[in-house]
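Researcher: Let's try something more involved. This one mixes different molecule types, so please make sure each is placed in the same coordinate frame as the others.
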Amino acid sequence: MRKVVAIILASAFFAVLLVSFSNIQQADYGEKEYYYQNPINGSYANESVPSHYISNTKNETGAVNAVTAIVVEYRGFDTLGEVTVLFTAATGVSFLLYKTRGGKKRTEANLILKEGSKLVLPFILLTGAYIFIHGHLTPGGGFPGGAVIASGFLLMMLSYPKFFMKEKAVSVTESMAGITFAFIGLLGLVFASSFLQNFLPLGDAGYVLSAGIIPIIYIAIGFKVGSELSSIADKLKEVQK
Amino acid sequence: MIELTIISWIMAFLVIGAAIYAIETKDLISAAIAAGVASLVVSIMFLVLQAPDVAITEASIGAGLTMAIFVYAIGRTGRWEE
Amino acid sequence: MVTPVLMIVIPLLAAFLMPLIKKAHRYFTFSILLLNAILSVLLFAKVYNDGAIYETIAGFSPPVGIYLAVDNLSALLALIINLFATINFVTSKKDFKFSMLYLLAVTGATGIVLTGDIFNMFVFFEITAVASYALVASKKDEKAVEGSIKYMILGSVGSSFMLIGIAIIYSQLKSLNLYDIAARISSMDPKMMWLSFSFLLTGIGVEAELFPLNGWVPDAYEGASSNIASFLSFGPSKASIYAIARLLIIFSMSRTYELALYVGIATLLIGEVAAFMQKNEKRMLAYSSIGQMGLILIAFSLIKDTSYAIPAAFFIIVSHASAKSSLFLISGKKGFGGITSKYVGLAGVLSLIGMPPMAGFWGKWYLLMGIADEKMWAVAAVIIFSAVIEAIYFARYLHKNLGEGESEDLGYSIPAAVMVSVSIIMGILPLVYNMAGGVLNA
Amino acid sequence: MMWPEYITVAALISIGLYGVMAKKNLMKIFIALSLMETGVNLLLITIGYIPGGTAPIENGNFAKYVDPLPQALVLTAIVIGLSVTALALTLLIWYHSKTGTLEYRRGMRW
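Model: All components are placed in one shared frame. Result:
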């Protein structure tokens, strides 16, 4: 009975969604109907929001990758919030699973996996670092870079059942990275006029040392995401009672 | 362009099939893996839709890590539904 | 120099710092919360004198960048949330991770109230929600975890729906700024407008405890420890009902107001009747909270018709935030054992029912005035009917508890007394103000 | 019209909703929720796509780029989804260790 009702409701929802999506036009965002209005002084601009990003990313932020420029600069406040959500979740996980660590025995992985993962780990970490350092030039950035680092530690956890993250080191890393992010934002408030504003020279677009605060923030995010994801995986790993 | 449309349709059916399998199977490990597969195919769709940043992130976080923690959690609770 | 962004960044920085200074975490958290409350007083003073503040972030003019938009009501709500959070925190006895989560939850609720960008609002919603899930479960017993899981399931569905609503708006207007959306909403296809409004209302309605999305409310409030139940009733729920008010102003169609009015009436009736039927005290208080949220939504849905709507909503919010939170705070013990908790119970119940020297009285008074202006007698009848039910079950509640009880825990009942006093002060102030010949306009 | 993508989105969201409504196993419900989140992410990216556009990374020759803003939003949404899932799994592990089951019991319905 429950299933039938659920199927009917879900199909009705499916139909509603399809009908509504058929009204969405894949229109060019540069068209006139999308021109925005400045909410503070009420004047109309002669561009839409996305076309502002496309045409001004390079000279306003110094980044080549527009997505990175939006994530770190234009909408950097969202990213601070997002990092906070991940931080909250990691705190919640360690808060709730505090005392469940113990020694349930697991079969040891075989030698090739063990030695191989030891060999591969530095390369994985290096790849992760490369991804987040070059976030403003190539696709990637802090989040995938951090995830790659975490997957390196995940590999270690898989091959060594007794491998645990050092809790203190992880929490210090994530705190320092978070403080760096928020502190750079506050420096923007001091040296420029608003929170998270860029106060460093933009440099030549296309080089690693360019784009002002973007690489610094992305490195902080990379460390933070990497440490938090690995601590979450570490806490959820199979050890109990 | 017709090839791309065909590929898109194939991917769409793959995703929907994987999603239905993930919901209907009684084995939670297969369900988690099917959800991961759906997520992975969606990340290829992101690539086709010219969103490489999102594709990388979805493949590593959405498909990889989410599936890993699901598998860990299922290992600590119970593998079978009901 | 008071800038609203400091009210969000300082607590975040403090939460990031917390693992490094484990020892003094309680004093540290308390002082940060107090600092935030002081900042919000200053902010309110500034907004009251100079008009609304718009603060750009990252130095890009608004629809391109994010900005914070603070007007009178949002400054007041930030003040309410931070002030009560400060008082409530006195009762916390757990380790530093609890303090971190608490601080983050308060920051998220403050952010929802202050921000002027719809996606940024979503992010702050998630901060509050994730922190609240963990806080509800922090009691670490079966009921608490059960309540938290329920909250989490509905909350996740809600956040997905909210994101769908945002996506639909973005597809039509290519903008995420609340005021830009409000200015250009008329160019949107009305069908799509309805869809996005209903998705957003559903999404936020989960947090704002609206009918029929409030299945989690009684379980979470019953399962959580008493200071967290108290936090839930002044923090996330108040911030999200304010977010709904902002949405109503943006969409600003008579039909959307009507829909909100109906949802509000349904929420009010269901909540009060369920509270009347309830035997368990905490669940009764939780259902009564649902009823009050309905009342607030009714007030907000009249925002376009009558100038009484905003004062009415404001006073009900103050009354409910102070009275209900203090009642939850003393609900850990059976009965009102000592003089302080007797005072809290009596004052809280009087304010919730809407008796004269309390803030709750002014809320219902302005609301009924507004409804009388609009000649919506059916709505007035519903409100009076629900007030009668409320009076009956609260009389039962007092009768059961005012007798003897366990000896009270002063660590809980004194903060509760401070909280409930806010309701009395806010009840007497307008009286003085009106006698002096001033006219109240928020 | 981009039918394959939109159909996938609608299907993922309604399959997720069906799972939440019909299933009794809590782990299954959270798998359904993660499918739903994937669907919403795909919706945002599809909205930002322009036929013939290229990825918004400046590559010298002047071309039409797809809308970069939804991509930034989805980056945020993916990480938020993972955070919620991690916390949920923690609670499920906790719940299972106390009660020995992940099925709804009588008190868990609504």
